[in-house]
Amino acid sequence: MTKSLFIGGAWTSGSGSRRGNVINPATGQEIGSVAFAETADLDAALRAAETGFRVWRKATAYERYRILAKAADLVRERSEAIAQAITREQGKPLAESRLEAGGAADIIDWFAEEGRRAYGRVIPSRLPGVRQAVLAEPVGPVAAFSPWNFPCAQLVRKIAAALAAGCSIIAKAPEETPSSAIELVRCFEEAGVPGGALNLVFGVPAEISSYLIPSPVIRKISFTGSVAVGRSLSALAGQHLKRTTMELGGHAPFIVCDDVDVDAVSRLGAGIKFRNAGQICTSPTRFLVDGKLKSRFTETFAALAENLVVGDGAAEGTQMGPLAHARRIDALDGLIRDAAEKGARVVTGGRRISNEGYFYAPTVLADVPKSARIMNEEPFGPVAVINGFDTLDDAVTEANRLPYGLGAYAFASSTAKAARLGDEVESGMISINHFGFAAPETPFGGIKDSGHGAEGGSEGLQAYLAMKFVSQVGA
Ligand code: NAD
């Protein structure tokens, strides 16, 4: 990973000597390093994005489609190497990394196609001989910031959508997990994306965002990460009047009504909760279970948590890998200790496993008071809270209590109850009676403090388009 920056169509190790260490979270050992961009490199990336935009926006939608479809094929061919890199640097089990890598190819394919459907419209004029058209144009060079929990999937959504719309992009990928990002960018390069249209940098995140966002070259910001960082990047973007897409944290409620198959729903809930060791913005955190089912639901859930095979994601049979960072262990310990002090029951887990690597036991807390920090802060780890409710009104009130509004889940056999939850839970996405988020063709995004804008679906392309109204006489 010597030359990890991709600027103006060339791989470089940058103009400075600063590098970031890359750690395998399953061992805690350093396995490589990544070059950090300095100001001179960011200036070069901005110049490249400016000239790259002029070239790429002139390519026809069909040419862009052909190139992106080729990139998707290359990602598919190399998906095993990409998956291995994700597991090595981020820790998730290989089966999950394979889904992520394969899914990246699907996302590129979908945006490649959708870019051909960036339709405008014609509006009948009040005046004779005048044609009024609305054209969808690429918004301009984009600065994108993607996180480490899905090193490939979060990045590809931004790159594929921006390129499909005809934008150029400077992507700052996560320093902790650079290899799959580098592999991904190579696929676009080899598929024929012209130099400058796609640039990849790593570095000190705050340095890069505070330099790129104010630059007059950049017209659009896309960020995925925590609410706190999203808030500060939004403020900076607002000051410079830049458009933003913000995909921030969540605290997903998972509502279980009294008329469901409690064991089946509990198993499904645990399966979703511990995916990627809970480091998913839509990971269910507050399991709100009808009081009549709560104890059975908790028992089944805890048994599953206790039997999960936790280990190195690269090992055969591992069901949950380590946390991606050492710092997340302290964060989880703090949240669980606080909950227990405030009266929560630690049903299982609540501790680090092994002194090597960043493993944490799948944890179940029950009867957690609202005053506990974990009921208010995103745990971003393998911790489930199970609380009972008396009425559906109570469940909805609790679901909507927090300022977050990203993912939500509801389970009910009664279609009336299911429809009510679908209507009344305040979230950008709700999945009812199954797990159904994040397909390339469906919008993915939040409301309230969880951000704004969507990354998938046709909305994901619209985010990179600006509408131009053209009124022409004699056309
Ligand atoms: P963090 O807030 O330090 O960083 C979150 C992400 O933002 C990282 O990818 C980081 O590189 C980036 N970042 C941080 N400061 C930045 C800046 N000034 N400019 C640009 N990018 C910046 O937290 P963390 O310890 O890395 O992750 C834990 C928290 O982050 C979690 O609690 C979760 O809420 C959030 N997170 C959310 C997602 C998501 O998918 N929405 C993904 C990863 C992390």
Quick rundown:
The chain is of the alpha/beta class. Helices cover about 40% and strands about 20% of the residues.
What's the pLDDT, averaged over the residues? 97
**Spans of 5+ residues with little confidence (pLDDT < 50)?**
none
How big is the Rg?
23 Å
What distance lies between the first and last C-alpha atoms, to the nearest angstrom?
Answer: 54 Å
CATH architecture of the largest domain: 3-Layer(aba) Sandwich
CATH homology group of the largest domain: Aldehyde Dehydrogenase, Chain A, domain 1
Query: What is the CATH topology descriptor of the largest domain?
Result: Aldehyde Dehydrogenase, Chain A, domain 1
Shape call: globular
> Could you give the order of strands across the largest sheet?
14-17-18-13-12-19-20
Strand tally is 22
Task: Work out the helicity level.
Answer: 25-40%
Largest pleated sheet: 7 strands, mixed
Number of domains: 2
Q: How many DSSP H or I helices?
A: 14
Question: In percent, how much strand structure appears in the residues?
Answer: 15-25%
Q: CATH class of the largest domain, please?
A: Alpha Beta
The kinds of small molecule bound in this structure are: nicotinamide-adenine-dinucleotide
Structural class: alpha/beta
Write up this protein.
- The chain has 2 domains: 5-248 and 449-473, Aldehyde Dehydrogenase, Chain A, domain 1, CATH 3.40.605.10; 252-439, Aldehyde Dehydrogenase, Chain A, domain 2 (3-Layer(aba) Sandwich).
- It has 475 residues and is an alpha/beta fold.
- The model has no long low-confidence stretch (mean pLDDT 97).
- It has 14 helices and 22 strands.
- Strands 14-17-18-13-12-19-20 form a 7-stranded mixed β-sheet, sandwiched between helices.
- Bound molecules: nicotinamide-adenine-dinucleotide.
- Nicotinamide-adenine-dinucleotide binds next to helix 7 and helix 8.
